[in-house]
Fold these 3 entries.
Entry 1:
Amino acid sequence: MKNVLVIGSTGQIGSELTLELRRQIPDGNIVAGYIKGAEPHGDLLTSGPCEIADVTNAEQLAQIVDKYEIDTIYNLAALLSAVAEAKPLLAWDIQMNGLINILEIARDKKCAVFTPSSIGAFGPNTPKENTPQDTIQRPKTMYGVTKVATELLSDYYFTKYGVDTRAVRFPGLISNVTLPGGGTTDYAVDIFYSAVKGEEFVCPIQAGTFMDMMYMPDAIKACIDLMNADPSKLVHRNAFNIASMSFDPEMLRNEILKFIPDFKMRYEFDSVRQAIADSWPDKMDDSCAREEWGWSPEYDMQSMTKDMIETLSQRFSK
């Protein structure tokens, strides 16, 4: 990778990924692609090139690829699970028609493409414990349907046309930089903001609901490490299970209480998000990622909680 287009650069993953790529590849063009209404600001705006990059506008994307001689595209444009359920047709347009545009451009201009999948690609018939890399995928949400289709279409373009497509299945992501945008696992971010602000947290997910989670530094590491991996070692491509920690709301609350003893939480579950969470795995088996490209997370629940609370406490004390 040298010249990279990050589509969705102002989102939860994209904002941190773009800045990390600029740190790691200082002599390259790392283009922050965004849509109107989600413009970059701060370091994201000032540290490198920025361009409007709407995945539904193929001509616009092709012009950016030519202008900056892009060799790698990170396609992070998507509506997250709960939002996609409310706007299924828009989710399909962004996640599938947008993907076709990117894959066709990549085929023509010889770019590598990373389009992430998710635990949402699994469904209620998928084994919930140590979910295998290769297993049944019959999701019951539009978000999940588009993620399965993304995996299949990305594999098709690799097999049929030789496009270098790669992806991971992200668990729930926890960030201390950017707020989430409507995902089922968002409670695991929101809970820290409430705790640090001294507010009671109203949890929309029931106690005993386990889901895979990951701290954002590990997610960014996975995005970069996979695209830098030796392609001859990749048996799987779209998409690798990656895992870091699995917990339910009670476990996370108890960990926060070690740092903020007066933290209060009550339950008021959201039936839509709960149904989605119940259809997802409790814990994925990520042995293929570990074997094929050396995946290894650096954070567990304890170290992530400590870092989240310290970072947010410093920010809100200013």
Note: The chain has a mean pLDDT of 94.
Entry 2:
Amino acid sequence: MPASRDPADPHPSPIAAPLLAWHARAGRHDLPWQSDRTPYRVWVSEIMLQQTQVAAVRPYYERFMRRFPTVRALAAAQVDEVLHLWSGLGYYARARNLHRAAGLICAAHDGELPRSFAALADLPGIGRSTAGAILALAHGERFPILDGNVRRVLARYFGVAGAATSSAALARLWELSERCTPHVQLADYTQAIMDLGATVCVRSRPLCGCCPLAAGCFARRTGRQQELPAPRRARSRRVRRAFMVVALKADGSVLLERRPERGVWGGLWCLPQFDTASAARAFVRETIDTRGREPQPLSAFEHAFTHFSLVVSPMLVHCDGTAGLVQQGTSLWYNVRAPARVGLPAPIGALLTRLAQDTMFGVAEAARQPGA
């Protein structure tokens, strides 16, 4: 479909027409959330796509929507089941915010995402850009957006100097996003500019030869594609160490504890974690009936987070069959042979799966290194 524009608009978008023409020809039109573009489906997709690529999101989105096809279904679920379906996707605060927001939508908006921009942006985990994307994609309303892909496209095209997260650069980019958003074909334009940043105007080695905006792009004209937007100042990557207790009963149950809401793996169920091996051993001695058996080290593994790497040293200890010490809501015995639907960090789930598959529960070396 050829790009249209509003004849009454005295300041037409400088990029909408070529973007829309490119999107009609080469954009993505078969994404699962595009087939039935309800506000709820768009909302879930936008949250999942925050800091995560489409290829990783697609299977999670399809499973999530099968289980929670409506806002009410999501609100009625236990947060553990929501986190279980999110396990492996990362940035788990997104899942907790989705669940909290679903409850608020049911309580205050009769189970429908609000049409008011202010009310939508005020919900947990949404904010200005995501609210604009939901209203543009689901309702065709004119709201600018500024996710990471859009920032990169606008910073390069208009030559916006400075890091895209600085207050001055952000203010300028929001101004440009407002100016560039057309008055017609809002859903198509919003999808088009996100697609361009995700597939053509990528962070490294942008495909300028395929870009519909190449002729007017400042970065291409000046050869500054790698400089714009200015990269964040590199941080030295920290390495943290953690010791985790794998307290295993004969029936295949492992002791798990719920992580605090804030911080690493917030709200997920994890093995009891300690800063030192001596603290882990002290926990075993004081809280678990091991009949005198000492914890045995398993293969350490490393898991990369955004700003640091976590090196985990699991310590396996076999428990007496009557081991208890479970506090409702904060700890549980998780049977690795018949797992419950709770949220687990991906590397912890991999370790427990390895234990479940191994028949040599009494040999410390039986649990090999899990996948990250």
Note: DSSP finds 14 helices and eight strands in the chain.
Entry 3:
Amino acid sequence: MTGIWVCAIEFQKVSVIGLSNAHCHAPPPLGILHAMSQDTLDLDQRARNLLRTLISQYIRDGRPVGSRTLARMHGVNLSPATIRNVMADLESEGLVAAPHTSAGRVPTPRGYRLFVDSMLHMPPLAEDQLGRIQAELSTHDSGDGLIESASNLLSGITHFVGLVTVPKRDQLALRHIDFVSLESNKVLVILVLSDNEVQNRVIQPSRPYSRRELEKTANYINQHYSGQTLHQIVRDLVRQLRSVQDSMDAIMQTAADMAERTLQEPDPANFVVAGQTNLMSCVDLANLDRLRELFEAFSRKQEIISLLEGCIHADGVRLFIGDESGSEVLGECSVVTAPYSVDGQVLGVLGVVGPTRMKYDHVIQVVETTGKLLGQAMRQLS
């Protein structure tokens, strides 16, 4: 996906992020698809107005837009013949296409990209939808419940597919830890994490430990490291172990060993998905083979996970239109994502998958708002 431009949007502030780590500093403030020619960027105002009007109309009703339809629309004030000439220019630039001979035009992914990057207005999210998100995310006392609710909200409000990645437990703060001795020199690790979830892991320590040693070690970690993530705990203990190994207290050595082995088998990446069946009602995705491929991708998860995890360090919303995602199965879809975080630490990514014909201003605001409020709700659990 190197070289693809994506936009990062933070409510009223808009910036550009490139997957190739390049940046565009010239106006307009939103990014332009990397492959666009300079001629496309120099479209005159008449062509830009027609393209914006065509895309807005197509998003509303899903039917190809003809020159006569455009001529009747408010604010165009151009003859059908002039409109046809401009439309031919837009088609030669790859911004619109005619699905059938003598039919009107529809926007291409390239046209959508220009529309989103330089023509899109971002009204605030409707108060009722904002209130719905706040209300539903405030009713859960566990991280798993919040994630499922966020996924359902994204799907329910946009009528597309809602996705939320599950935080890896190693990214969550530790509340309490216990060790229970098992047979064959194994130890059960019981973790109570900041999202109120309990996780059990079975590890194989470097040597047998007595019940008393395990109890002292758990007390030591709970006393000194509660509130830190497992990554932070291991990093600190291992650093101390390597720097002062000869003089380190036996309990600290045991704690370093146990913590490091607890982290050796990280949680597999996962996400919660809601609303796959919404895609069946999208006329743009009515091809049964395409729908089957999409459902299989959601079931396999790895392809979707790779895309979402690639957005985990984004500073705001990322938008992939069609082939920009780098995924063939998502080639007729748009994906809008945003990270969610607690106290500056990113826990995961959420997003919406739908057809390229979507109300981008609305979906972007829903994803952005849900990401921020999910992070706030997760913080309340800690």
Note: The domain at 127-167+268-381 is CATH 3.30.450.40 (Beta-Lactamase).
